[in-house]
UniProtKB/TrEMBL annotation, chain A:
Molecular-function annotations in GO: transmembrane transporter activity
Family: Belongs to the binding-protein-dependent transport system permease family. HisMQ subfamily.
Protein name stated in the entry: Amino acid ABC transporter membrane protein 2, PAAT family
Main localization, broad class: membrane
Residue span, ABC transmembrane type-1 domain: 17-205
NCBIfam families for this protein: HEQRo_perm_3TM
Signal peptide location: none
Keywords: Amino-acid transport, Cell membrane, Membrane, Transmembrane, Transmembrane helix, Transport
Organism of this sequence: Onishia taeanensis
From TrEMBL, chain B:
Annotated TM spans: 20-43, 71-97, 149-174, 186-203
Domain (ABC transmembrane type-1) ranges: 19-207
Keywords recorded for this protein, A-Z: Amino-acid transport, Cell membrane, Membrane, Transmembrane, Transmembrane helix, Transport
Keyword Magnesium recorded: no
Protein name (Swiss-Prot/TrEMBL): Amino acid ABC transporter membrane protein 1, PAAT family
Cell division found in the keyword field: no
UniProt lineage: Bacteria, Pseudomonadati, Pseudomonadota, Gammaproteobacteria, Oceanospirillales
Entry superkingdom: Bacteria
The family this protein is said to belong to: Belongs to the binding-protein-dependent transport system permease family. HisMQ subfamily.
Its membrane topology: Multi-pass membrane protein
One term under GO cellular component: ATP-binding cassette (ABC) transporter complex
GO biological process, one term: amino acid transport
Localization in the cell: Cell inner membrane; Cell membrane
Length: 218, 223
């Protein structure tokens, strides 16, 4: 049996950590794009669409992310698609992220006082113009802190991709542990890796939130 | 392909067994996690020494690392240190520590919004420190953050799916088990996902029902 030095373990974890970062970025970018479209559709007037999007959000928020990953992975295979762990993880995490962001952003848009809507409509702006020039800029300020805060959940969510065989930080940890058998050290280092990624974002989100409330908005 | 749910029927016992595990894990975690959170929030609110800092560190570590890593750390790491721990115990401890940290932070937000003066007024009226803390600080704080508390408990219930990875026979473990027998992964996961969804809806309803009784004093007030 080969001996693993601490540096071997750290080096391998760092290499795998890249994929945690890449998967987080894919999930966040994809989730933000889908989430934005869903939010705008949901704010529109068409009832059946609003109802469907609400159902979408409730289903993704009311079921385990692990199940969503299994469904994407095994479901696609059952439907005859040959998906890699990469595709399944990206897809599931994107949909998961989009549902949560859609919910967060809807709240932010609804938090803009309705008088702002009425005023811009009275001034002759149509729905899209009001949305773009009056509502969204105000909603955006409210949206930044919770969105940054949610990015922490996305990073932590990518750890579940390890279960379907995607080699990121957590999977690398279990693989290394099978070879080196130093679970305490290895999983402490894995946890440290996530902490280094997440803690600054958590702090930043809290700072933004304080600044926003300090500015007397809401 | 065609969906065939009939192959699931012989396994309904397995699903029920998994469901029971998920349910008891969730119920015990909810009570123990909230109790832990009250202690953590109390200490962090009233003391400012080393204990308070340690608890602050605990909250931050739990909130900024994935649950699955916390679980692996407890289940694989503790035995390596000579502390034997069974899979269900590791799962329960991880879930309680997780809910405790998040709830402590949620509670803190509720406590912060209670004016200091109210606590002092209650002390001046002759309530003991604990009485005043309970009635004037804690209960109003709970009623204020109750919606976030419900969501957090549901998140932990859904997150418990991960305990299947250290072979605790929960609902997700049951799904994996059936999938490995009848190779009908999609159908199994669809049904089990639906069960989780129903659990989440049921939990929210029950919490709301309990909340209406617990915080009846707020009705008609500035709720």
């Amino acid at each position: 049996m080969t001996d693993f030095t601490l540096w071997d373990i750290v080096r391998n974890l760092l290499l795998a950590g890249r994929w945690t970062v890449v998967l987080s970025l894919i999930a966040f970018a994809g989730g933000a794009a889908v989430g934005l479209v869903l939010t705008l559709l949901r704010m529109g007037g068409f009832k059946p669409i609003r109802w469907l999007i609400r159902l979408y959000v409730d289903v993704f928020q009311g079921t385990p992310l692990l199940m969503q990953l299994f469904l994407a992975y095994f479901g696609a295979a059952a439907l005859g698609f040959d998906v890699s762990a990469w595709t399944a993880a990206s897809l599931a995490l994107t949909l998961f992220t989009s549902a949560f962001l859609c919910d967060i952003w809807r709240g932010c848009i609804e938090a803009v006082p309705s008088g702002q809507w009425q005023a811009s409509r009275v001034l002759g702006l149509n729905y899209l113009q009001s949305m773009r020039h009056v509502i969204l800029p105000q909603a955006l300020r409210l949206a930044v802190p919770p969105t940054v805060g949610f990015s922490v959940q996305v990073i932590k969510g990518t750890a579940l991709a390890s279960v379907i065989g995607f080699v990121e930080l957590t999977k690398a940890g279990t693989m290394l542990n099978n070879a080196a058998f130093a679970p305490f050290t290895i999983f402490a280092l894995v946890a440290l890796g996530y902490f280094i990624l997440c803690y600054p974002l958590s702090r930043y989100a809290r700072y933004l939130e304080k600044r926003l409330y300090g500015a007397g908005i809401r | 392909m065609t969906l065939d749910f009939s192959t699931l029927l012989p396994y309904s016992g397995v699903i029920i067994e998994g469901l029971v595990t998920t349910l008891w894990l969730t119920v015990v975690t909810t009570f123990a996690g909230i109790a832990l959170a009250i202690v953590v929030a109390y200490v962090r609110d009233l003391e400012s020494g080393i204990m308070s800092r340690l608890l602050g560190g605990y909250v931050e570590v739990v909130r900024n690392t994935p649950f699955i890593v916390q679980l692996f750390f407890l289940f694989f790491g503790l035995p390596a240190l000579g502390i034997p721990i069974s899979a269900p115990v590791a799962a329960l401890v991880a879930m309680v520590l997780n809910l405790g940290a998040y709830t402590a932070e949620i509670l803190r937000a509720g406590i912060d919004s209670t004016a200091r003066g109210q606590h002092e007024a209650a002390r001046a009226l002759g309530l003991s420190r604990l009485q005043s803390y309970r009635h004037v600080v804690l209960v109003p704080a709970f009623s204020r953050v109750y919606p976030s508390l419900i969501s957090q408990c549901i998140i932990v219930m859904l997150g418990s799916a991960v305990v299947s990875q250290i072979s605790v026979f929960d609902l997700t473990y049951a799904a994996n088990f059936i999938q490995s027998r009848n190779f009908r992964g999609f159908e199994v996961y669809l049904v089990v996902t639906l069960i989780y969804l129903l659990l989440a809806v049921g939990m929210r309803r029950s919490f709301e029902l309990v909340g209406r009784r617990l915080f009846a004093f707020r009705q008609g007030g500035s709720a």
